[in-house]
Automatic annotation (TrEMBL):
Highest taxon above the source species: Eukaryota
Naturally occurring in which organism (per UniProt): Thlaspi arvense (Field penny-cress)
Catalytic activity: succinate semialdehyde + NAD(+) + H2O = succinate + NADH + 2 H(+)
BP-aspect Gene Ontology terms: gamma-aminobutyric acid catabolic process
UniProt domain Aldehyde dehydrogenase: residue ranges: 21-470
Catalytic site positions: E257
TM ranges: none
Protein name, entry field: Succinate-semialdehyde dehydrogenase
Gene Ontology cellular component list: mitochondrial matrix
Pathway as given in its UniProt record: Amino-acid degradation; 4-aminobutanoate degradation
Gene3D superfamilies tied to this protein: Aldehyde Dehydrogenase, Chain A, domain 1, Aldehyde Dehydrogenase, Chain A, domain 2
Amino acid sequence: VSEKLRNSGLLRTQGLIGGKWIDSYDKSTIKVNNPATGEIVADVACMGTKETNDAIASSYEAFPSWSRLTAGERSKILRRWYDLLIAHKEELGQLITLEQGKPLKEAIGEVAYGASFIEYYAEEAKRVYGDIIPPNLSDRRLFVLKQPVGVVGAITPWNFPLAMITRKVGPALASGCTVVVKPSELTPLTALAAAELALQAGVPPGALNVVMGSAPEIGDALLTSPQVRKITFTGSTAVGKKLMAAAAPTVKKVSLELGGNAPSIIFDDADLDVAVKGTLAAKFRNSGQTCVCANRVLVQDGIYDKFAEAFSEAVQKLEVGDGFKEGTTQGPLINDAAVQKVESFVQDAVSKGAKIILGGKRHSLGMTFYEPTVIRDVMSNMIMSKEEIFGPVAPLIRFKTEEDAIRIANDTIAGLAAYIFTNSVQRSWRVSEALEYGLVGVAPFGGVKQSGLGREGSKYGMDEYLEYLTVSCATG
Ligand code: ADP
């Protein structure tokens, strides 16, 4: 931990409840470690049911006053938060690298990206318009007002310790909701630092709470509380399904950003260089640990061998190492369980006939580093074709025709992101529309099928935190 970070006041280890930094009630803690070195970075409060209930109560109490501020007043506070996040992007980036492992440059990039949601929704707060509906009775006038849904529970993952929080908290606070955030227990430090800056920006006590610790306890408290009106979650499909079911008894609004199984489809007519660069970025960002990472690389017959060669050459140039080391492009995986999962997927593919072109094993750096890997002759019966790898392994799958590509690409329960490489404009339209995916390209962000529910980012992201109130006025 650098001197600057230590002196910044951003290294928080307590939870934030009702505007106060507090220990867990039984003083228990969880250790946060640096995945690149195994070093313990901090002991943070390990909270559970009681703390979460108090956080919910404080958010519930803060709701009337926060939601009654004018949009302009909330906007000013959010804008100040954005400015503070940007002013501290170095320290926040260091925290991200420290607890998550991604290269520092990428981490600082995440701060800019994460902060942009706060900036955007600070502006968008002022544009929540209502409607006037022609009445069904001549002596009535009908209005639709958009109102904040209430207290929001936000459960977020470790792969983007800042951005997955801001894209939820930004629109929630902008619309007048108050929020209880549960960051991943693996990466709480970034969340706490961001919350400290929110306090400095003037976000009032209770409008934003942060609790971390026992995921099932905190999750249950959020889900069973009738005061929590919405659950927004980013994480695994399995946990998302559980949360959706548990939200039913209290009929909460639910937004889910779940796992993907993104195909990157390279047609014969693609520009080889563009396809290599594009797939490299889509696959190896954050060492393959994003839900929109290319999980399957579908390559047409005619370009398959050329692509395999050029792609492997590009992958070979990736620099694996500690995220703080200059030049590193690939950090470690988040923990050993993640590496074991990757190992088992690779073993399964090889046992069924796939061939490793590059990598295929743990990196000599040890810890949770894994070699950037390219595997060819991957078939649909192999686990890596069906499940999210979430690691630096690119499986190459061969296809013959456009119809084959679409069939293979859609043959999955996921439907988040897809990538197409072709020089034909007609084909890119045709294939984009035939793919059962929420995003082919970019924004707004969200999946179809079992990849999720709701949208994040853009003007559509705001609707997730609003309810429609119909007002019927009599004129006589
Ligand atoms: P990932 O594979 O990204 O770790 P998870 O779905 O396990 O995905 O984790 C995403 C978030 O969900 C984390 O904050 C984690 O603590 C939380 N989580 C995991 N299990 C539960 C649960 N049973 N109830 C509530 N939150 C949970």
